[in-house]
Amino acid sequence: MKTLLWMSAVAAVCAFGQQRQVTPFVLPEEVALRKVDIMSEGTRMAGEVYRLKSLSGKKLPTIVMSHGWGGTVAGLRRDAARFAQEGYLAVAFDYRGWGSSDSRVILTSPAPAANPARRYTAEVQEVREAVDPMDMGADILNALHWVQGEPECDTARIGLWGSSFSGGLVVYAAAHDPRVKALHSQVPALDGRWVVATEQERKSTYEESTRRARGEIGYPAPRAKTIGNLIGAPIRSRFVEYHPVEEVEKAPQCAMQFVIAEKEELFDNKHHGVLAYSRAKGPKNLVTVPRITHYGIYYEAWDQSHKLAQEWFDRHLRAR
Description:
It is a single chain. With 320 residues, the chain is an alpha/beta fold. It has one domain (4-107, 123-310): Alpha/Beta hydrolase fold, catalytic domain (Rossmann fold, 3-Layer(aba) Sandwich). 30% of the residues lie in helices and 23% in strands. Strands 1-2-4-3-8-9-11-12 form an eight-stranded mixed sheet, sandwiched between helices. A two-stranded antiparallel sheet has the order 5-6. The protein has a two-stranded parallel sheet with strand order 7-10. Helix 7 (273-279) links the parallel strand 11 (255-261) and strand 12. The longest helix is centred in the last third of the chain and has 17 residues, at 302-318. The chain is globular. The N and C termini lie far apart (40 Å). The model is unreliable at 1-19 (pLDDT under 50).
């Protein structure tokens, strides 16, 4: 399966991508930033809300933003602040177990046998900085639930922004929440089935899953690097059921824009962004940025990609 290109190329390019520098983020004076807590399945996620100070109290079209594999909310601030300057309410957050968010926890020993009060003291272990696409998809859905209660959110005009791994997650979220009216998905990875694409990958995935289900192994250590230099080991069994490229058609209400890199080296665009675009049922757009590789979207093509996102949201959120 050609999605394996993603796995074989990561080791060669991730270090290069991480070495390149983005200009340090400085919050524009006219933008207000508020730190918030978003609950996802009982766990607190750290969120940040951006808007123009001059638009305080007004209902605004809203963009919920999520980071990719190994990232944190810090990588979203430049785009979030720019969206605020353009008149949007922008909400960015760290997934559970990443950045400043709390972690999902597991018991280190069995719970008390009889516990009518359903409360007890126990030792727990964090599940931190592991990559679970189904948990991350749930986190985006809970961020969408949370934003419905924001007084300045126009709940009829909500969009999603995602990049790289989260470029697939936003499609997953739109397919499961019809309140999403538009999304911008750049250099997206949209299929997790590389974990069963060959006999060796299938064997590794199911052996790991069996051992974890039998309590023989726990969850990966924080910041584990099992795929090249990507931070965070995958929970392989959860990738088997994650293939948003197959769910695009479930979101006909959502205007979808896919921006891909001409020289994408981590996966084959034909099986990800291009295929998702072909299956989208609502308003859609596909843009190929010439001459860039995957990480170029954050560097030499950042202005172009942000402008594309702004114009797409202007057309499908602001015009509404």
